[in-house]
Amino acid sequence: MLWITRERPKIDRLACPWLIKKFVDEGAQFVYVPYDQVIEKAKELNAVPFDIPNVEFTHYDDQSTFDYIVKKYNITDPAIAIIATIVRGADTDRHDIAKEAAGLWAISAGLAYNITNDYELLKTSTFIYDALYSWATNLYQQRHLQNSPFESLLHEVYNKFLKEKKSDKKKVPDWVAELKAIIQDQIDTQFTFDLKKISTELSLNPSYLSREFSKYFEDLNFGEYIRKIRIEKAISLIENSSYSLTEIAYLTGFSDQSHFTRIFRQHTGKSPSSFRKNITKSKPDTKR
Question: Which letter does DSSP use for residue 36 in this model?
């Protein structure tokens, strides 16, 4: 069977091919094309489109395409249930639902950055998902320090050191205020964020900035904080403007309406349309 999806894969579009070949069709083949060609090429090649809107194999509510394939083909392997949660968290920026999700996102993004050929990227990613499957099958309950007394001792010493360091009150670095100003400027203009570029502007090492960021920004990592600011701006636009929700999604930097809706619901507990209806109802009727 031939499957087709958008080019430049990172999470779902690499995880799904691995899942299909391992549990659905060992001989499956995959094609990557530009987004606007997927449906046309699917018809031309008699291929199954996946991980794009308005097709069968796609996201449903808060579930990823990987989740749908598991359900569609009744894959009951417990290890796949573990991996599905990790893939879902990485693919929808909900790293809170599986602590491994942030790692999968980082590895996938790094692979995509290093490998520009989609088919080579797919081949390489197979090793990642094979390893993840072995871990989920055999090592899920095992911890790194569990069987290593020496490393456990190092960990204990390190934790003690951290506690001592935390007890020392430190002045907030100057770069924190500068970064807040940069973020605010970006929000009010193009609303794009490049951690590497910002690190250069602040004359900081990107790794240091990424590591230290949460200490001064509400205990959130860079991506979480930016999403929070985006949603706060979206709420302000919903409350104080007549922009459509599609326009608001664009103005707040979301790649598409469905992504905007998912992140908005995570932060507010409501969809943007429901939120707007409640705001409208709560406003006093000024017409007499």
Answer: G
Using CA atoms, how far apart are residues 87 and 14, in angstroms rounded to an integer? 10
**Interatomic CA distance for residues 236 and 243, integer angstroms:** 11
Q: Is 3 helix (H, G, I), strand (E, B) or coil?
A: strand
| Dist CA 152 CA 137 (whole Å) | 24
131 burial (CB, 10 Å; 0-12 / 13-18 / 19+) is exposed
**d(C-alpha 183, C-alpha 223), whole Å:** 12
Q: Which of 47, 94, 42, 43 is nearest to 67 (CA)?
A: 94
pLDDT along the chain (288 residues), means of 10: 95 97 96 95 97 94 94 96 95 91 94 95 96 92 62 64 59 83 67 73 84 86 84 87 85 79 88 86 57
* CATH number for the domain formed by residue range(s) 174-282: 1.10.10.60
Q: For the chain, which residues make up each domain, given as ranges?
A: 2-139, 174-282
Amino acid at 190: Q
User: What single-letter DSSP state applies at residue 35?
Assistant: G
Give the tokens for residue 262.
Answer: 């998912």
